[in-house]
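Hi L.,

As promised, Cob(I)yrinic acid a,c-diamide adenosyltransferase:
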Amino acid sequence: MPQGKPEYVPEDGLTTRQRRNRPLVMVHTGPGKGKSTAAFGLALRAWNQGWPIGVFQFVKSAKWRIGEENALLALGRLHEQTGEGGPVFWSKMGEGWSWIQRPGTEADHEADAREGWEQIKRDLAAETYRLYILDEFTYPMKWGWVDVDDVVAALAARPGNQHVVITGRDADPRLIEAADLVTEMGKVRHPMDSGQKGQKGIEW
């Protein structure tokens, strides 16, 4: 099967192989469904390549057990047992993040979001993962909990070969401008428009 040729080749001095292998910042945004699902599909491909994967969920409740979480964590356990694929780390803001414990029961979502981002910056500096999925991360930026310019600067300065996927609606224009790949998902029709709800355990 013949391979397609790009319409435009940047004058950046890189070979095709170097350009293909460079790390990317990817943004999945827009009002349509499937932004997180597409990111988790990419995580499956990364696991198959043996890449370490870090998933950070910034909005979804700790009580929600989505299918992709169960599947990817099962693949992480398979890696631990057999060496197949890559390791998987999954953490949620709704759980107060897995690496910190705060006294009291009242959740401070803004502080949790900032702490999540600070941990991601530490991981980027240490090159902890090959693929990062920052799920629903556009919202802490939109709400002013996390500084957009700090995000853009940290992503631009990340060392090594680390890919980052950010999902969520209303991505900031500065993030879009800094990203290598931006996909906007638009809604044409949705079952809920006619009152139909998703099946139990399946989100659409």
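The mean pLDDT is 86.

Thanks again for sending the construct details.

K.
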